[in-house]
Amino acid sequence: MKEQAESAYRPGYEGNHMKAYIYDADKASLVAWLKQEQQPAYRADQILAWLNQGVQNPAEMTNLPKTLKIALANAYDTQGLTLLQRQDSAEDGTSKYIFQLTDGNIVESVFMIYKTGTSVCVSSQAGCQMGCRFCASTKAGFGRNLTAGEMLAQLALIGRDKACRIDKLVVMGIGEPFENYDQLISFLNQAKATDRLGIGARHMTVSTCGLVPQMLQFAEDAPQVTLAVSLHAPNDRLRRQLMPVAQRWSIDELLGACRSYLENSNRRLTFEYALFKGVNDGAEQALELARRISGLRCHVNLIPANPVPGTGLYPSTPDRIRAFQDILTQHHIPCTVRRELGRDITAACGQLRRRLEEHEQSH
Length: 363
Prior knowledge:
Elements: H1 2-7, H2 27-36, H3 43-52, H4 66-75, E1 81-88, E2 95-101, E3 106-114, E4 117-121, E5 125-127, H5 136-140, E6 142-145, H6 148-162, E7 168-171, H7 181-192, E8 204-208, H8 212-221, E9 226-230, H9 236-242, H10 251-265, E10 269-275, H11 283-293, E11 298-304, H12 318-330, E12 335-337, H13 351-361
Parallel strand pairs: 4-7, 7-8, 8-9, 9-10, 10-11, 11-12
Antiparallel strand pairs: 1-2, 2-3, 3-4, 5-6
Helix pairs in contact: 2-3, 6-7, 8-10, 11-12
């Protein structure tokens, strides 16, 4: 097992010899390892069942023999995700989780309750390299990509903590998922597998800043998963002020990829649009946006922006948000204003991680 464990290094840490995280083990690799340990193959199903329940410590896997528990602990990293902090909203049942990875990096996840069920917002990277002007993750710096297992564990451990099934997942936490594309696809496949968490693909959403090549590939690799595109501006000039990724691909190129996605996936697309006072929230921008996306099978999710100190950006007022929404609706663009969950615990991903790391650095 030593060779197998050492080969499954964390992305971004090429050349090191960290043990493979136990959540990165699939059934085939577990069966192969069990054969080496002279253990029956059915033990793989038992191990996976425990992992699906959020149990990563072999000592707690009560139906395994003691020798196998010890062997698992020696072969794998069995504490790859450690809960540092949980904050619970007094308003709506939202909980924010701060996890530490084995190498010390920190990620956030958010548990939310909707009328349609429970949902977890997952981080795909420790930090983000996209540099969006309005994002708290930008100022916190970048650590590395997460493995598929580290993403999967966020769901499983939160499900265990909440003692409930997770009905939906959204990859909208810290990081740009399409910068970690291969691990993302592996994670989605494992999350929907019937012997893992069994979350239907139509109950999954992945958000991107607009990495055009990966958007085109995503329609082939995950056609039933909803794609959410962070747009935040109706033209290149304004979008480049807010999002450096807009320097690489124009809105015309981005919308071209959106059309290809719609043709290949037969799914409705979501556009995320955060509203900033006096920047992108005027009637002129609303009209331009309506013209840009007219004819696309899409939905616009208007986001009351969260204030991030030092950005020079401020949240739009409720009146301007309603006026923006009214213009889109008048032009037959399906549009809603995102429900603000966890306002009292700064549930927007990146904010709590940044505060925690700033505190660590000052002590």
